[in-house]
Amino acid sequence: MSDLEVRDLTRVFASGDTPRRAVDGVSFTATSGLLTGFVGGNGAGKTTTMRMIMGVLAITSGEVLFDGAPVTRHDRREFGYMPEERGLYPKQPVLDQLVYLARLRGIDAPAARREVLEHLERLGLAGRAKDHVEKLSLGNQQRVQIIAAVMGQPKALVLDEPFSGLDPAAVDAMADLLREHTRRGVPVLFSSHQLDLVERLCERLVILGGGRVLANGTPDDLRAKGVTRHRLVLAGDAGFVRGVPGVLAVDVDGSSALVEVHDDDAATRLLSAALERGAVQEFSPVRPTLAQIYREVTS
Amino acid sequence: MLVATREIVVRALNKGFLIGLAVTVAMIGGLIGFSAYMDSRTDSFDVAVVTGDDAALTAVESAREEAATSDEGIELTVLRVDDAAAAKAALEDETADAWLSSGTAGTAGATGAADDAGWSLSGWREPDGGLADLLGTTVRDQVMADRADGAGTTIEALTAGSEIETERLDGNPVDPQVVFFAGFVLAFLFFTGAVGSGAMIAGSVIEEKQSRLVEIIATAVPLRQLLAGKIIGSSVIALAQNLLLAGIGLVGLSFTDLSAVLPAMTATMIWFVVFFTVGFVAVAALYAVAGSLASRTEDLQYTTTPLMMLLMGVYIVTFSADGVLERVLSYVPPASIVSMPVRVLNGDALWWEPIVSLLVLVVATLGAVLLSERAYRGALMQTGGRVTWKSALASDKGTTLGA
């Protein structure tokens, strides 16, 4: 299986007198057969990293490896790529330009045509094959663009914001399509602002901020690294939790409290103190959402 | 070559391009048709002469004979009228185009009632210039002949040996006016062809850059190939366009009375097409850079302005240049594209001169293409604002693709 790996990737833009490190020593692996979500705020360096992976932008230092070896232009030729901005040739029919793009990647004309038609059919665009791209809605243009990326059984997919602007049904269709490719065993790296979506879809997650990797792993790994909170529900008043050593009361509301427990001893102390005061109806860990983790690591 | 094919197909199907070409073809055809029509048409005039004005009658008769034997395309008919009033009436109701009067007593022209008012040609409006010339000459000859007679000599004796023969020693049959006109046409073809096709290539580059489509393409084919495809594609279009226009021009020319210059003109056109084809490659490459320097379509007018000025300069300078300046320009690209073919037409270029000039052009084109290729690759992936030539050529900013 061929992983896509970036090692210590750095890009410096010489804008004016002060060079700006847009991407600063980024390392991570998009494992083959897995969906890797690439998360980060605006200007975090996601697009710059992806452009360097695709070789569209020169690398200041660091390297991109595919299947353990430095990526070559032949590898990249077989990568599916969806750039940041949307838009194809606005005045050319959908079918013609998809076939053209497929042929540029070395697929012969009849095969390209067959595959394009198949994909159009699948994404509900079969009737629009002869329409000019500019006549399509933005969501449909996005679908055309994703077809451009996934044609010809790519060896890896690098997609910049593939889900932005899609309705929920289209998101599902797109996710199915990406899963199909991970099932073939290719690595799929995509960036997104939609954390809930990333949480739902991705097996792996890379959080980027200020050009650096802030967190990297499976969603569960990341959650485990965050401070776990517990919810405690009692029969009586829960105000006493404020006095228990090693316990931080985040929120107390009548008989219910949300607390952060810093070690196991503190948890035991908290629970026995609660039992002394009467029945404990609930004591459960609250799993942080990705959004919380994201806020924690980026703050 | 896939890229070149697409450029050609997209261009060839572009409505704006086709309409522009059709208008140009129609203009050339119309111009040639109009001049052929002007050459071949015959004007007929009815000239009124008052009965008894024998001098006028003789003049009109001899003018008619004169006109019939020359190729001026004028036909005269004599219309006899009773008196001055009838002549005026004939002019007013347009049965006569003009009234020739010798001004002798009783037959005085429309304006002068005085005796012996002299010769006059009257029309309801200003009499036709060609007619006035013809009758003027005839009357002058007639009056001079009369006076020569009175002086006991003949008009032939008076004018003998006063004719000037014109002779051209270089043996070139091409009229300098034709050379000037051809220079104008070539400069125009060059300018419209270069600017039109150049704008197309710049537009196609920015279309791909703005939509980031170029990033997809760049991962599939080297940028160098993409650029080459674009240049070849638009050069083929520009070449086809100029061949078409030159062909129509030459065929059209053979129908006019300028057909004598056809061989010289054909040679000139062939040289022009060769020069233009080579030179256009450089123009196309530079326009591709102009396209890549912009980051939005709106920036194009800024990034293409320097090129536009250069081409405009060539246009203005070449069609008006002559003498030493023209000789120099015929070696300096891109002016040589127009100036050298004009010198060939003019007949003052030695056989090796166009070849040397063409070599200079080829070298300049190669240089321009190499420079452009670098700038194009450098600028294409720089997003956010216009890019300068300097930063486009600074290699570290560019892409790793393309080589």
Structure overview:
Chain A is α/β, with parallel strands linked by helices. Chain A has two domains: 4-223, P-loop containing nucleotide triphosphate hydrolases (Rossmann fold), CATH 3.40.50; 226-298, Alpha-Beta Plaits. Chain A is built from ten helices and 14 strands. In chain A, a hairpin with a 2-residue loop joins strand 9 and strand 10 (212-217). Helix content of chain B is 66%, strand content 6%. Chain B has a four-stranded mixed sheet with strand order 2-1-3-4. The two termini of chain B are 17 Å apart. Mean pLDDT of chain B is 80; it is low at 107-115. Classes of the chains: A alpha/beta (299), B mainly alpha (403). At the A-B interface, helix 2, strand 6 and helix 3 of A face helix 1, helix 7 and helix 8 of B.
Outline:
Chain A is of the alpha/beta class and about 300 residues long. Helix content of chain A is about 35%, strand content about 30%. In chain A, the strands form three sheets. Chain A has a six-stranded mixed sheet, sandwiched between helices.
